Amino acid sequence: MNPVIVIPSYWTRDDRPTDIGELGVYDHATPVDKPLPELETCLSSLDQVRGVLRVIVLLVSPPDCEASARARVEGICRMHTALNPLIIGQAEGQLVQRVVNDIAPSLSAELISLRGYGAIRNMGLAVAAVLGHDVVVFLDDDEVALDKDYLLNAVYGLGKKNRQGIPIQVKSGYYLDRKGSPFADVSGQRWCDHFWSKREEFNDLMNRMIMGTRIQRANHICGGCFAIGAQAFTRVPFDSSITRGEDLDYLFNLRMHGIDVWFDNQWFVQHLPPEIPSRAARFLQDVYRWTYERKKLEVCNATIGLRHVTPESLMPYPGPWISPDINRRMALTALMRAIAGPERGEYLKIFLRGRAQAHAWADGVANRYLALETYWSRIMEGLWDNHLLARRLVKMGTARLSWRRTVTEEDS
């Protein structure tokens, strides 16, 4: 196997809350002036890991701080040269997009880019294909590997078959919190969270999975502890329209293509997320997310050649979140939080306008994934082991002491 670790890293000028419900808005991003960025802690944890061949850092930042973010990331990567880090920023991403455009000229560049959760993951898969890596291991920059066998556990079982002869092409591990627990904290939940908490459902699921056999079929993906073999990622792309939760959405996409996700209860990372600037912002992203998921699954379930994905097949979790009842729960939660708790005005806006806007947006983009899905295998074939593009990406994306360039005509 030739695995590569792919780390999306989100940066911003400061830590002020951003507008929400739009592509390119993320749960949290690292301020460029933060003394100890999450990416540094993440890469430091990988220094102990055996068998790391390459780490791809997907640099995501708005234009107004791209140069500053690039400087910070290059400085961090220079401290971890043993990991063979490769930075993919806007300049490198444009090279990939030009090749993709030659293969599929009618496809929107936003589907494989450094903007939007799903499109960023697609960029990671695209770069891995260019460099000829047959396994992609996704790790988030606010996570740390806890032991030297992290990568060995990541690839354990991939490419094999279970006792029933079913191939294991995709697998997920799980997160430990700061206290070392794999379970969600159910203490301190407010009455206004009653219709929007999935912690108990998640804990029931995790308890069964952790106590079971090492490798078992899963209804859940932890996107920051996630490994994908080439047989899967060259067939199935991430959805660039999803506002958040692109990992669980990818499970739906895989099932449409008849590919199972497997859970490895011996593979885990520690998740150390920073504070969320705005919980109302996250809720609105979830309103967009689940509204879109229902509309997308409705479209895909009516498409010949794709398998049906239903709430019943995903019980006990996440089935309830793609059922018709989710619309009622969205409304009740927005209204209840507008009555009690912080950010009441923001929740009232979501109740009065945000939900309707989410439905209108979902109706307009529900067919976009099918367009990408149609071209994806052809794109992967055109990118796979592309030596010329690989040389350019490595030359541009390798951090050096005093070196910087942008895309020029000679890179076209």
Report on this model:
- The protein is of the alpha/beta class and 412 residues long.
- Helices cover 41% and strands 14% of the residues.
- Strands 1, 2, 3, 4, 5, 6, 7, 8, 9 and 10 form a 10-stranded mixed beta sheet that branches.
- α2 (66-78) links the parallel β3 and β4.
- α3 runs antiparallel to α13 (387-397), α4 runs parallel beside α12 and α9 (279-301) packs antiparallel against α10 (326-339).
- It is globular, with a radius of gyration of 21 Å.
- The protein starts with a strand and ends in a 15-residue tail after the last helix.
- Mean pLDDT is 90; it is low at 20-24 and 402-412.
- Largest β sheet strand count, sense and barrel closure: 10 strands, mixed
Mean pLDDT: 90
Number of helices: 13
| Helix/sheet category | alpha/beta
Distance between the termini: 31 Å
Record keyword descriptors for this entry.
13 helices; 10-stranded mixed sheet; 412 residues; alpha/beta; globular
SSE map:
Blueprint (H helix, E strand, L loop, with lengths): L2 E10 L17 E2 L6 H9 L8 E6 L5 H13 L6 E4 L1 H14 L13 H14 L4 E5 L3 E2 L5 H6 L14 E7 L22 H13 L3 E4 L6 E5 H4 L12 H11 L4 E11 L7 H23 L24 H14 L4 H22 L2 H16 L3 H11 L15
Parallel strand pairs: 1-2, 1-3, 1-5, 3-4, 7-10
Antiparallel strand pairs: 5-9, 6-10, 7-9, 8-10
Short précis:
The protein has helices at 38-46, 66-78, 90-103, 117-130, 150-155, 199-211, 230-233, 246-256, 279-301, 326-339, 344-365, 368-383, 387-397, and strands at 3-12, 30-31, 55-60, 85-88, 135-139, 143-144, 170-176, 215-218, 225-229, 261-271. The chain has 412 residues and is α/β, with parallel strands linked by helices.
